[in-house]
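In response to the reviewer comment on reproducibility (Comment 2.3), we provide here a single inverse folding case reported in full, input and output, so that an independent group could reproduce the run without further information from us. The structure tokens appear first.
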């Protein structure tokens, strides 16, 4: 009897597991209801990190996380560019892969291209909102003389049941040093096959940015299309990812190039299949003029003459640099928006005992002032504490991703670096005001005997021992 019950229990658990697996797989086939863009913003102190944006129609975008980065690289160069976002066929696992490069640290482009990182930075998730710590994947280390590994992409290959990762590496081959596209295979974004040359243009012509999109085979004649920045924006088609590709054309007839013939010089081609329609948008980064991404669309990729320009689009508040777009199911969209779509209110922090003065940053120093100009210097979003979600952290409105933190008990506005020290220094417990219980005081998370207070109008972190200190350490939070 016990054995029978045990067998029944085991069978029930197996059926439940199979049911849950079926649910997970079914979710991957759900209709798409929105879009997620992963990107970086530029060479600012915190611009070379992972930012996310959301769109319902694929043309009008809203910044997530109030315009601040959602993932920070704490490995390699501690900066990332050119992120790609990848979904497993079952819809139960996701990866973000990105270039390990931080120009903002003072790295020259020559050093980056010739003596840079040969690794990619990888994050992994099962739900799009909880991500692993970043890790390095050395994709180009086995390429002789490799100088870098730039602009990675990945696509699932149903023919082999694994993923093809492809990227640009600057190396010498047949006596010519230039960027070529290399590829490798992986099943888990941890172990890879030996890298091989994937795309090599004739002569000295280099190629850096390539992205592939899949389409119904009945449209345009090919199953896969790729757009590459190789002097032009070249479009090619193929029925296999690593097989023979046919050149379809370029965008020179639209006045668009990658620099070979002038016109609107762009890079970072980024495909977006339009949800619910046989249509594709190709986003192009107008890096030469700094205008950001522009979209062109096509309902048939079999000819580049089918592309049309789009005028009604918007990219949100942050600059979008080379990234990737993924369509979202309703469940995925709900999770992403619940995590990062909350538009937290803008607040000012008012002094209790000098009530015409507000906490503000000036040249990244922090003090209290009256008549703050520009007004945004005294505006903050009160976020869940970086070190403790039950506490608070103060994020700048006009410098998203920058927080108030103490250093040697002085206060600065600093870009979040992902470290545990930063998290603790920028986290405070909001308690009843020391001078008035209807106001607030902010107790340090890592120095609980100290509070935020002003002294000679400068913000400090001090022990509070008298009435003057209690007044200086009491603040109002206003809209």
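Designed residues, in position order:
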């Amino acid at each position: 009897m016990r054995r029978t019950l045990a067998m029944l229990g085991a069978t029930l658990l197996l059926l439940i597991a199979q049911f849950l697996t079926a649910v997970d797989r079914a979710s991957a086939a759900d209709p798409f209801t929105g879009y997620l863009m992963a990107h970086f913003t530029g060479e600012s102190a915190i611009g070379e990190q992972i930012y996310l944006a959301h769109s319902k129609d694929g043309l009008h975008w809203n910044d997530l996380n109030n315009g601040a980065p959602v993932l920070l690289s704490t490995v390699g160069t501690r900066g990332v560019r050119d992120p790609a976002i990848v979904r497993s066929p079952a819809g139960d696992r996701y990866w973000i892969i990105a270039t390990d490069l931080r120009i903002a640290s003072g790295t020259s482009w020559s050093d980056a291209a010739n003596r840079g990182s040969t690794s990619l930075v990888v994050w992994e998730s099962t739900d799009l909102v909880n991500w692993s710590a970043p890790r390095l994947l050395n994709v180009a280390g086995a390429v002789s003389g490799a100088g870098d590994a730039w602009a990675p992409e990945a696509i699932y290959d149903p023919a082999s049941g694994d993923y093809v990762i492809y990227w640009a590496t600057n190396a010498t081959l047949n006596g010519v040093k230039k960027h070529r596209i290399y590829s490798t295979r992986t099943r888990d974004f941890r172990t890879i096959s030996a890298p091989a040359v994937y795309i090599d243009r004739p002569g000295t012509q280099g190629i850096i940015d390539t992205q592939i999109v899949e389409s119904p085979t009945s449209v345009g004649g090919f199953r896969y299309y790729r757009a590459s920045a190789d002097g032009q924006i070249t479009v090619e088609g193929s029925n296999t990812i690593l097989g023979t590709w046919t050149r379809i054309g370029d965008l020179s007839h639209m006045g668009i190039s990658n620099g070979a013939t002038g016109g609107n010089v762009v890079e970072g081609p980024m495909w977006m299949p339009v949800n619910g329609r046989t249509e594709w948008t190709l986003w192009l980064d107008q890096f030469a003029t700094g205008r950001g991404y522009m979209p062109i669309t096509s309902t048939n990729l079999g000819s580049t003459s089918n592309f049309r320009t789009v005028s009604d689009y918007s990219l949100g508040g942050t600059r979008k640099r080379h990234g990737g777009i993924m369509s979202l199911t309703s469940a995925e969209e709900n999770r992403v928006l619940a995590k990062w779509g909350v538009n937290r209110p803008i607040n000012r922090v008012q002094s209790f005992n000098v009530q015409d003065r507000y906490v503000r940053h000036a040249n990244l120093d922090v003090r209290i002032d009256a008549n703050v100009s520009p007004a945004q210097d005294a505006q903050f979003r009160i976020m869940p504490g970086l070190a403790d979600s039950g506490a608070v952290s103060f994020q700048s409105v006009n410098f998203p991703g920058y927080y108030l933190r103490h250093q040697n008990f002085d206060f600065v506005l600093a870009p979040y670096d992902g470290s545990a020290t930063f998290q603790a220094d920028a986290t405070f417990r909001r308690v009843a005001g020391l001078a008035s219980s209807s106001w607030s005081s902010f107790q340090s998370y890592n120095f609980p005997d100290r509070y935020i207070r002003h002294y000679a109008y400068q913000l400090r972190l001090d022990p509070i021992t008298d009435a003057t200190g209690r007044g200086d350490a009491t603040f109002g939070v206003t809209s």
